[in-house]
Amino acid sequence: MSVLVYIESEEGKFKKASYEVASYAKEVAGMMGTSVTAITINAGDTGELGTYGVDKVLKVNNDKLSNFNAEAYADAIAQAAKKEDTSLVVLSQSANSKYLAPLLAVQLEAGYASNVVALPESTDPFTVKRNAFTNKAFSFTKITTDVKIVGLAKNAFGLKEAQGEAAAEDFSPNLSDEDFTVNVESVDKATNKVTIADAEIVVSGGRGLKGPENWGMIEEMADILGAATACSKPVSDMGWRPHSEHVGQTGKPVASNLYIAVGISGAIQHLAGINAAKTKVVINNDPEAPFFKAADYGVVGDAFEVVPKLNEKLKEFKEKNA
Amino acid sequence: MKILVCISHVPDTTSKINFTEGDTKFDTSGVQFVINPNDEFGLTRAMWFKEKQGASVDVVNVGGAETEPTLRKALAIGADSAIRVNVQPTDGFQVAKQLAQIVKDGGYDLVIAGRESIDYNGGMVPGMLAGLIDANFVNNCIGLEVEGDKATATREIDGGKETLTASLPLVIGGQKGLVEESDLKIPNMRGIMQARKKPLNVVEPSETSVQTEVVKFEKPAPKGEVKLVDPENLDELIDLLHNEAKAI
Ligand SMILES: Cc1cc2nc3c(=O)[nH]c(=O)nc-3n(C[C@H](O)[C@H](O)[C@H](O)COP(=O)(O)OP(=O)(O)OC[C@H]3O[C@@H](n4cnc5c(N)ncnc54)[C@H](O)[C@@H]3O)c2cc1C
Ligand SMILES: Nc1ncnc2c1ncn2[C@@H]1O[C@H](COP(=O)(O)O)[C@@H](O)[C@H]1O
């Protein structure tokens, strides 16, 4: 009966988004009068999960699962859901969770609501609020199946601590060769860099920065704030920055706590991808730039003057508040 | 190789989003519809397989007659034939079920869909379809090669990419990167003329059920005015970000 939450880890460690889905699961379990069971795959110490409301952890440890594999992971989660007689599975909207969720939905014959941004309006009928139309609207979706899957959008709920202890239990799903028909041959990943998906703060530059040689001050700001760097589409198209930094409707989505846009006009396709960021700051020398309509805070000024000054002040602030 | 490209018919990105009938229906008046951008990348990649490897390419949409201009556009870009499953799409599962039937009937080896559609942003259809027909599945696909019945796909991951191998039948959720944007195919006059003569088959839906229902839509609350900070007084910005927004 319990709510099952899939808790992702990377190299054995949990991320903030993992605690967020746990907090959410706890709250929904409360509405439904049940408990929270988590499933982890090759995670290390799971004690921390109790702090976010998890009552029980099913720990899967299996070398065959050391690389993410959507089919096999979905199968493991489906078996946990059946074992726990779960009526609700909660997962994050990381790229990996989005990959496995529809496979899991088919296995469990479950209705799946993606991009959920709030607690259910009601749990009977089960109705949730979701982002739609690239963040330009919300849809309220009713899931009508017995088993339900909710994909929680990043930073939509936040963290909630609870008093509790998570009892850990080993769980060995039955995996067959059929689960391993898509295989990883090689991985090409920048290490030691904050990724846009994980970052709490994203500092982004646009065509207003004139050329790749001027990105030093953007990287400096990102360094000071522990932020990821990003850019608008033309900037990556021109090869000033790598494609992996392109954000917007056709690029990576941003759902960070803070988004700082420097020299970006704020075209609708750019905003579509960053609307989910909580607080938006724009630095642009054109007071008519559309971004000012979408931002919370703005500085009208020349980036080449404003950014270096702001970096100095941010450094002072960080030193004081360290 | 037989390729099926799934085409979702979506409002152009600059469309105004409004709702009617007590916020239960998307207001299509004055809205320009286009091929979902992720599907455009997939369709152009499919054309590459057609030209270089002699693949056949069909396109499919699950939707009403109003989507036919979008399918004709895909034919003008170079698809061989189009299929329209004559039912209004209501949820990702229902669409995936219809597509599964088309794939079974047509014996397709490779199904190219998009990572997500830009209207309901479900990101559900390709994975569900793969699950229903028991095909391999690669999401966030930014590169694809096929040799015989072996596919090599590149997937975007957080902070990088990875290379995967899988045998056909395969479903991908494609996106930008599958082809260069400058290589995206647009219909030319000859293509448009030919498209008029290509088959667009309308098939009736197979039996299905839905798992989710949209109860209503809502537009976000209007945003407050931006707070402007004097470039000479950046301390104020830091103060606002720290104390008001609690963002740093
Ligand atoms: C189908 C489609 C999909 C798209 N998808 C995306 C997407 O995913 N992401 C994306 O970003 N775009 C996307 N675009 C492109 C988008 O429409 C815009 O063209 C793009 O976002 C503009 O980038 P920009 O703001 O960097 O450049 P510009 O529009 O050229 O703006 C530069 C800004 O810098 C300011 N500026 C200039 N000098 C200075 C200075 N010294 N100091 C401060 N400010 C200065 C200018 O006032 C201007 O506002 C898409 C377009 C289409 C048609
Ligand atoms: N009605 C539809 N007809 C055909 N293909 C669709 C339809 N809806 C979605 N798809 C395909 O599934 C992908 C993802 O859509 P979605 O799951 O709605 O985000 C799209 O990019 C299309 O390739």
Q: What's the total helix number of chain B?
A: 6
- What is the CATH third-level topology name of the largest domain in chain A? Rossmann fold
The coarse overall form of chain B would be globular
Subunit arrangement of the protein: heterodimer
Rg from Cα of chain A? 21 Å
Content-based structural category of chain B: alpha/beta
What is the element string of chain A, with H for helices and E for strands?
EEEHEEHEHEEEEEEEEHEHEHEHEH
Give me the secondary-structure category of chain A. Answer: alpha/beta
Beta-strand portion of chain A reads: 25-35%
Number of strands of chain B: 15
Please describe the biggest sheet of chain A, giving its number of strands, its sense, and whether it closes into a barrel.
7 strands, parallel
Strand order of the largest sheet of chain B: 11-10-9-12-8-1-6-7-13
Radius of gyration of chain B: 21 Å
How many discrete structural domains of chain A? Answer: 2
List cofactors, ions and other ligands.
Answer: flavin-adenine dinucleotide, adenosine monophosphate
N- to C-terminal distance of chain A: 45 Å
Side-by-side strand order of the widest sheet of chain A: 7-11-6-1-4-5-12
Q: So, CATH architecture of the largest domain in chain A?
A: 3-Layer(aba) Sandwich
Largest interface: A-B, 89 and 75 residues
Q: DSSP strand (E) fraction of chain B? A: 25-35%
Structure description:
Chain A contains eight helices and 18 strands. By secondary structure, chain A is an alpha/beta fold. In chain A, the strands form four sheets. Chain A has a seven-stranded parallel beta sheet with strand order 7-11-6-1-4-5-12, with helices on both faces. Chain A has a five-stranded parallel beta sheet with strand order 15-14-16-17-18. Chain A is elongated and about 60 Å long. In chain B, helix 3 packs across helix 4. The model of chain B has no long low-confidence stretch (mean pLDDT 95). In chain B, a hairpin with a 4-residue loop joins strand 3 (19-20) and strand 4. With 248 residues, chain B is an alpha/beta fold. Chain B has helices at residues 37-53, 68-77, 92-106, 125-133, 189-197, 234-244; strands at residues 2-6, 9-11, 19-20, 25-26, 33-35, 56-62, 81-85, 110-114, 136-147, 150-157, 160-167, 170-174, 200-203, 212-218, 227-228. Classes of the chains: A alpha/beta (322), B alpha/beta (248). Chains A and B meet through helix 3, strand 7, strand 9, strand 10 and strand 13 of A and helix 3, helix 4, strand 9, strand 10 and strand 11 of B. Strand 18 (297-300) of chain A pairs parallel with strand 15 of chain B, so a sheet runs across the interface. Bound molecules: flavin-adenine dinucleotide and adenosine monophosphate. Adenosine monophosphate (AMP) is lined by residues 6-8, 36, 38-39, 60-63, 89, 92, 95, 113-114, 116-117, 120-126 of chain B.
